[in-house]
């Protein structure tokens, strides 16, 4: 159906398409265009000259050529109407409005000769107090707009220009181009409702509700943007990195804005020219209040933000006045500190009077409580500091550069944290943090101690206590002998979370998965299967509720459970579906994708689908090497499984090449002189030896020993594995003279670095064996007699039981 020829939108569209783009010198009503200042989303902004009835320069905004949709024109009209409703010194004024001969609307506002607020602060090197006062003025302007029923929705430094009036900086808010009537009333009769999925604004300054595309956006969205601005004024950079945000993709960008909590502004390093003065040029203890103020404005839940721009500005003013800020719970000590800072002479005088004249019992109790609180905090800080210094002082060091081993550091820290006698809550946090850093099999005692403290500090229904319970049960469940007691606790945690948060909450889903996974391990596959199938259904129906990696793990465990129940075909199909999900959503450099390929490869090898197992496991190795490197346990586990598949298929060359690749990756990752690299070389030597390629094994071992020897010619302690591999080769050749030399070198190496290691007696026994085979029995006998004497004195154990009979026989 052809639209009527008198349709205004169609007529305007035709007129626009006939018109040339504006250029300098064009006349628009009473105004002559001088030069273009920039382009907005829907219109271009020009500096223009007006000659009558007054002479002045103005900013003229006119709709862009081609932007002739009804929605765009509606938004342009909104901006003109919104600005005309406001009259405030911190908001650019609307002076005039009209339309071009072709019907393209324009409006005229005061020309703001200024620079973005962040640039102004940097160039002028404004101290903290002046920055905050400038920011307060911006809040006042925003509040004026809110009182007029207008939300800006695109507050950012380039839309807040600072100009100087009589030497005084004045911020001016411009560009209400995407403003929205917060009352829900139409600004014009052509206003269209923003589409729910449309993101309006600049991502870096966009509130979570804007990023979500919610039509229910209110003034607290501008409060969030003001929080980003304050963050940038304090830290010299926004809460999120622009390049990272823009490179993340649309969905990931929205997730970051909605979910990721920014670091404290005071923890960010300063950016900008090196000659600029640090923005945080004030004592660190003062920045704590500003951190809290800023982060309250940046709360993901808008109900927890400041209720208005005025409330935000008032808290900033409280900081400037040394008054308690509402962004933090006012403890007695805190209130006292803030009062004393505001009234220093009075506080000193008051103390003198109190000391001279005495105080009432109630005042004495309050003063004592405050003093004890301060002393406790000081003692607690001293205890924490002493813990750190004692830890470092007690550490052994290695070599001339005082190198510290990570294992020594973690062991020492764990001991000091366990003995820490300071604040129990601080100790709990220290234990939890340390538990994340130590090897998993060492973390359980730390988590159990944290739970013990948590039971005394938190109420029985506190989510943090249940999180501690979940961590301990999860840790216990990784040990086979503790699973029977851990799984019932995982069930209790899951049921509490289900009742508290509901079935669709991401935390509920994660805890349901953990419970079902370990239920499987103790023979509860029949009960675990419906839970896992429900997780798969929920995550497929709404992929946004969990990460793509979690979806892969849900399918992975569902396939395992089907296999446990004998439903092999269903398990294999689930595994293949999982690989497609992993490839599509995670790519080929994701650890989670590697886990999916490894699990399916294991399943295929278990059911003798060797072709599929080989290709799947080869892909898993590639993914793990790219994502986590050769040192990860999963990488070596996959290599071992793939080696087993190759062996079943009689493929020796791929096994050797796979191990050569692992050696190259180890050297690239951790260097030539590392125990992990040496262990990888030893595996390669073993593979060559088992395949009957003794000369290649000898050549490989010889070349590596030459590469790792120290300047004096000795093999370093971390190269011991390579030396042992070479000895195995020489004894198999057999090459007794070289084997004897290598064994004597190994015996010296072990005696030097691990003199109490019983293994050295096994090495000495092997040396004696080589001497006997060389026809030098007389030289071997003293060595064997020494071995027998030492092993007879040693307690019964693996080394004694294996080497003593052999030494006696020789």
Topology:
Blueprint: H1 8-18, E1 27-28, E2 31-39, E3 43-50, E4 56-63, H2 70-84, E5 94-99, E6 105-110, E7 115-116, H3 117-124, H4 128-147, E8 150-151, E9 160-165, E10 168-173, E11 180-181, H5 208-211, H6 219-235, H7 242-247, H8 250-259, H9 284-297, H10 309-320, H11 332-342, H12 344-357, H13 361-394, H14 406-419, H15 424-437, H16 440-457, H17 463-477, H18 483-501, H19 506-521, H20 525-541, H21 548-564, H22 568-586, H23 591-606, H24 610-627, H25 633-648, H26 653-670, H27 675-690, H28 694-708, H29 720-732, H30 736-753, H31 759-773, H32 777-793, H33 798-809
Antiparallel strand pairs: 1-2, 2-3, 3-4, 4-6, 5-6, 7-9, 8-11, 9-10
Helix pairs in contact: 4-6, 4-10, 6-9, 9-10, 11-12, 13-14, 14-15, 15-16, 16-17, 17-18, 18-19, 19-20, 19-21, 20-21, 21-22, 21-23, 22-23, 23-24, 23-25, 24-25, 25-26, 26-27, 27-28, 27-29, 28-29, 29-30, 30-31, 31-32, 31-33, 32-33
């Amino acid at each position: 159906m052809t639209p009527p020829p008198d349709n205004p939108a169609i007529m305007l569209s035709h007129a626009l398409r006939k018109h040339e783009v504006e250029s300098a010198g064009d006349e628009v009503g009473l105004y002559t265009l001088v030069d273009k200042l920039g382009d907005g989303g829907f219109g271009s902004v020009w500096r223009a000259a007006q000659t009558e009835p007054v002479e002045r320069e103005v900013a003229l905004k006119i709709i862009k050529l081609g932007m002739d949709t009804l929605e765009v024109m509606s938004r342009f009209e909104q901006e003109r109407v919104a600005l005309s409703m406001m009259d405030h010194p911190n908001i650019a004024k609307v002076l005039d409005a009209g339309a071009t001969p072709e019907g393209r609307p324009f409006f005229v506002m005061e020309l703001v000769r200024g620079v973005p607020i962040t640039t102004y602060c940097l160039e002028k090197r404004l101290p903290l107090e002046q920055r905050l006062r400038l920011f307060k003025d911006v809040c006042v302007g925003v509040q004026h707009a809110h009182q007029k029923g207008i939300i800006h929705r695109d507050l950012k430094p380039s839309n807040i220009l600072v100009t100087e009036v009589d030497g005084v900086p004045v911020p001016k808010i411009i560009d209400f181009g995407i403003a929205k009537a917060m009352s829900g009333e139409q600004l014009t009769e052509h206003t269209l409702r923003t589409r729910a999925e449309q993101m309006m604004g600049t991502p870096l300054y966009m509130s979570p509700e804007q990023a979500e595309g919610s039509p229910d956006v209110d003034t607290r969205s501008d409060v969030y943007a003001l929080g980003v601005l304050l963050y940038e004024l304090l830290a010299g950079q926004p809460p999120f990195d622009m390049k990272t945000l823009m490179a993340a993709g649309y969905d990931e960008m929205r997730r970051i804005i909605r979910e990721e909590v920014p670091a404290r502004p005071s923890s960010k390093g300063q950016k900008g020219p090196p000659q600029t003065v640090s923005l945080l040029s004030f004592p660190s203890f003062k920045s704590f209040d500003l951190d809290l103020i800023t982060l309250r404005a940046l709360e993901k839940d808008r109900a927890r933000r400041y209720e208005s721009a005025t409330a935000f500005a008032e808290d900033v003013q409280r900081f400037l006045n040394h008054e308690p800020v509402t962004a933090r719970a006012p403890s007695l000590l805190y209130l006292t500190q803030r009062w004393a800072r505001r009234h220093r002479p009075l506080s000193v005088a008051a103390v003198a009077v109190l000391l001279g004249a005495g105080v009432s019992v109630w005042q004495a109790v309050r003063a004592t409580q405050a003093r004890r609180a301060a002393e406790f905090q000081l003692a607690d800080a001293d205890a924490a500091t002493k813990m750190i210094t004692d830890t470092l002082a007690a550490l052994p060091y290695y070599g001339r550069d005082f190198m510290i081993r990570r294992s020594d550091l973690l062991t020492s820290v764990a001991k000091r944290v366990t003995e820490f006698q300071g604040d129990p809550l601080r100790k709990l946090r220290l234990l939890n943090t340390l538990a994340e850093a130590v090897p998993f099999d060492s973390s359980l005692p730390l988590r159990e101690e944290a739970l013990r403290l948590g039971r005394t500090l938190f109420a029985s229904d506190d989510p943090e206590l249940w999180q501690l319970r979940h961590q301990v049960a999860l840790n216990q469940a990784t040990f086979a002998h503790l699973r029977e007691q851990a799984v019932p606790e995982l069930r209790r945690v899951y049921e509490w979370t289900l009742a508290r948060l509901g079935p669709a909450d991401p935390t509920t889903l994660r805890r349901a998965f953990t419970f079902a996974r370990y239920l499987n391990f103790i023979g509860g596959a029949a009960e675990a299967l419906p839970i896992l199938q429900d997780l798969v259904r929920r995550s497929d129906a709404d992929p946004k509720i969990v990460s793509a990696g979690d979806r892969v793990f849900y399918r992975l465990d569902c396939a395992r459970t089907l296999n446990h129940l004998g439903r092999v075909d269903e398990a294999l199909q689930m595994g293949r579906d999982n690989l497609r999900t992993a490839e599509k959503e995670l790519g080929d450099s994701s650890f989670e994708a590697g886990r999916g390929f490894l699990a399916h490869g294991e399943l295929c090898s278990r059911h003798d689908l060797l072709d599929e197992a080989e290709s799947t496991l080869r892909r898993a190795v590639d993914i793990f090497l790219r994502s986590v490197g050769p040192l990860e346990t999963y990488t070596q586990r996959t290599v071992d499984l793939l080696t087993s598949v190759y062996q079943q298929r009689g493929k020796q060359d791929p096994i050797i090449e796979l191990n050569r690749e692992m050696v190259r990756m180890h050297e690239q990752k951790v260097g030539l002189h590392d125990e992990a690299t040496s262990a990888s070389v030893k595996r390669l030597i073993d593979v060559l030896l088992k395949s009957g390629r003794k000369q290649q094994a000898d050549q490989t071992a010889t070349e590596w020993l030459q590469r790792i020897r120290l300047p004096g010619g000795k093999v370093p302690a971390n190269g011991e594995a390579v030396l042992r591999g070479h000895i195995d080769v020489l004894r198999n050749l057999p090459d007794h003279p070289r084997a004897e030399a290598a064994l004597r070198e190994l015996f010296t190496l072990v005696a030097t670095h691990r003199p109490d290691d019983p293994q050295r007696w096994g090495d000495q026994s092997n040396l004696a064996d080589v001497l006997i085979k060389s026809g030098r029995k007389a030289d071997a006998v003293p060595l064997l007699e020494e071995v027998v004497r030492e092993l007879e004195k040693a307690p019964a154990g693996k080394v004694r039981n294996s080497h003593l009979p052999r030494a006696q026989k020789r």
